[in-house]
Automatic annotation (TrEMBL):
Keyword NADP: no
Protein name as catalogued: ABC transporter ATP-binding protein
InterPro entries tied to this protein: AAA+_ATPase, ABC1_TM_dom, ABC1_TM_sf, ABC_transporter-like_ATP-bd, ABC_transporter-like_CS, P-loop_NTPase, Type_1_exporter
Record organism: Lactobacillus melliventris
Keyword NADP: no
Length: 622
């Protein structure tokens, strides 16, 4: 199928979709500020009406005021000046209402932009983690930057100009018909020809504008990924390959963008000259008709008609140009709406958790009862997996028949090769993903019954990939518990042994951490995130390779602090260094999503199985 045919087909399919998006956009604008929309609609109607009235007045000016004056020996210019003042008044009203319209639309566009940005951010926070697995960060970012920008431009410029032009067109057409239907029909024939050309060009440029936005998303996505992995690229000297790939994306963007703009820019000169052509043709035709008395055409009518024909051709040129921007912005709006329509995390939990402000480390469940009352139950931290099966995607199972009984206060270690499913198990407890079958209970309550926010609030998680936010060291530790006092922060830092390096920082706890901890080592960030988890003081802890970047000496110290912290709390520890988990109450050995051995260190050593081989170095964790 050739491209032009494909473009036609795609466009006819998209037309319905576009009108839905446009309708939704209109509702969004209307609900953002109804009075602004009404005021701007009145202003734009007034603009078009005033401009056309001004042009129509030319006929009276010539026929009633100017021609009689040419026949008088001593002309009285008073009535003519009065008529010119009326005409000026018309144009002045048009100018003022047009100005008001532009200002209103600019303010309205800012309001919409602000609202969309906020809604998108709020919605994004509620999206399930799986959404971010499936979607590229660059694409999501592109939605926040390019798409919102084009949307704002569309509301503040393209739509106002489009409406202005469309209304002008209608009013001018009415005025032309009132002056001469013969000349109007002639104008419409020329107009129909120009529509065919406009349609031909807009269909093509619309396709390439959509492609351009898509390619831009890909370039941004690739850029971000490579920026994040810059160090890895340098280490492996992959700069030439990366550059080559980037070049390919960039080239596709250049091609799409070039074609989109070529079609769009051809449009304007064609339409501009169409106006001049129309002007000349009407002058010739009108003159011929009047001279040959084919139809009763006065000089005033021809003069006014010529003025109107200019006003008629201009909007067509503008409409065609604005249509491109609108189509481009609609593609952006579609992506914004798609993100806003993404289903948020399902949370039908009715059990909540409350921290007892008076007793340190004490939490309780609020369990609604059948009679409507709420039963308060102390949180113990008993986590049970019962025959749990799970896969991130429907066609690939990751966890098979997992059963774990983590009694309150137990330290449960998960060991196994890379990709065995250790992190996945922890992802099940905090409900980042939903299990396929089986049950997970927390103090006997199925976790699906617990409100997600509350469930996560009761779990402290320290990940291998630490993330710091821009702010002071103090703020970053306090992120775990915003109510914590400065002393609590110092204590947590002390317990996690983070205070040693913090004291060596230029401004100690007040040192600003930029971006994602740019100036800190990976190990130092891990110490901070352990301190952050410690301060949260939650009943259950999950440590996923939490100490993997810390040197063995410091790790031993951190371990001692952590063991104090973990005492009395249920904890799940994932560690490649077996030395950190030998004192666990229960060690689960995972292999390809199956638990193949379970017991404490001594029991597992006695078994002389997989764990024994790992521990004695006969087998290595890959
Ligand atoms: N978000 C995801 N989407 C799809 N598959 C995933 C996702 N996260 C992990 N997996 C797959 O699930 C399997 C188990 O991964 P998991 O991260 O649980 O392993 P792990 O034992 O924690 O490994 P490691 O020791 O490397 O951290 C792997 O095959 C991995 O490719």
């Amino acid at each position: 199928m050739n491209l032009d045919k494909a473009v036609e087909n795609k466009n006819s399919q998209n037309t319905g979709k576009r009108s839905t998006i446009l309708w939704r956009l209109l509702k969004l604008v209307a609900s953002t500020s109804p009075w602004m929309l009404i005021a701007s609609t009145i202003a734009i109607i007034l603009t078009a009406a005033a401009n056309v009235l001004g042009s129509l007045f030319i006929e009276r000016l010539i026929n009633v005021y100017i021609i009689p004056l040419t026949k008088e020996a001593q002309p009285n210019f008073g009535p003519l000046l009065h008529a010119i003042a009326v005409m000026f008044g018309c144009y002045a009203i048009g100018f003022i209402s047009n100005y008001l319209f532009a200002v209103l639309m600019a303010v309205l566009a800012q309001k919409v932009q602000y609202r969309v940005r906020l809604e998108m951010f709020e919605h994004m926070e509620k999206l399930p983690i799986s959404y971010f697995d499936e979607n590229d960060y660059g694409d999501i970012m592109s939605c926040y930057t390019n798409d919102i920008d084009t949307l704002q431009q569309m509301i503040s410029q393209s739509i106002p100009q489009f409406m202005n032009s469309a209304l002008n067109l209608i009013f001018v057409l009415g005025a032309m018909l009132a002056l001469s239907w013969q000349l109007t029909i002639f104008t419409l024939i020329v107009f129909a020809l120009s529509i065919i050309i406009v349609r031909f060009l807009t269909v093509r440029s619309a396709h390439y504008f959509q492609l351009q936005q898509k390619e831009l998303g890909q370039v941004n996505g690739y850029n971000e990924e490579m920026l994040n992995g810059l160090k890895v690229i340098k280490v492996f000297s992959h700069e030439p390959e990366v550059e080559e790939d980037f070049d390919a994306y960039n080239e596709s963007l250049k091609v799409a963008s070039g074609k989109a703009h070529t079609y769009a820019t051809i449009l304007f000169p064609i339409m501009g000259n169409m106006g001049n052509l129309l002007y000349v043709l009407i002058a010739i035709l009108g003159g011929a008709v009047a001279i040959n008395r084919i139809a009763p055409l006065s000089l005033g009518v021809i003069g006014a008609f010529l003025q109107l024909s200019k006003q008629f051709a201009m909007p067509i040129a503008q409409i065609s140009q604005q249509l491109n921007s609108i189509v481009m912005a609609l593609a952006g709006a579609e992506r914004i709406f798609k993100l806003e329509d993404q289903p948020v995390e399902i949370d039908d939990g009715d059990v909540t958790i409350t921290k007892d402000e008076n007793v340190k480390g004490a939490w309780h469940w609020n369990v609604p009862q059948k009679d409507g009352s709420v039963k308060k139950v102390t949180v113990k931290g008993h986590i049970v997996f019962d025959h749990v099966n799970f896969g991130y995607t429907p066609n690939k199972q990751i966890l098979y028949d997992i059963s774990i009984d983590a009694k309150p206060g137990m330290k449960v270690a998960l060991v196994g090769e890379t990709g065995a499913g250790k992190t996945t198990i922890s992802n099940m407890i905090n409900r980042f993903y939903e299990i396929n079958s089986g049950t997970i209970t927390y103090d006997g309550i199925p976790i699906s019954r617990i409100k997600k926010d509350d469930l996560r609030q009761s779990l402290s998680i320290v990940l291998q990939d630490t993330h710091m936010f821009t702010g002071t060291v103090m703020d970053n530790i306090r992120f775990g518990n915003t109510d914590a006092s400065d002393d609590d922060v110092y204590q947590a830092a002390h317990l996690s042994h983070a205070d040693e390096f913090i004291h060596h920082l230029d401004e100690g706890y007040k040192t600003i951490i930029d971006g994602n901890g740019g100036d800190l080592s990976q190990g130092q960030m891990q110490l901070l995130s352990i301190a952050r988890a410690m301060i949260a003081d939650e009943p259950v802890m999950i440590l996923d390779e939490a100490t993997s970047s810390i040197d063995t000496q410091t790790e031993k110290l951190v371990q001692a602090g952590m063991d104090n912290l973990l005492a009395g709390r249920t904890s799940f520890v994932i560690a490649h260094r077996l030395s950190t988990i030998v004192n666990s109450d229960l060690i689960l050995v995972l292999d390809h999503g199956h638990i193949i051995e379970a017991g404490n260190h001594e029991q597992l050593l006695k078994k002389k199985g997989y764990y024994y081989e790992l521990y004695t170095g006969k087998k290595e964790i890959e």
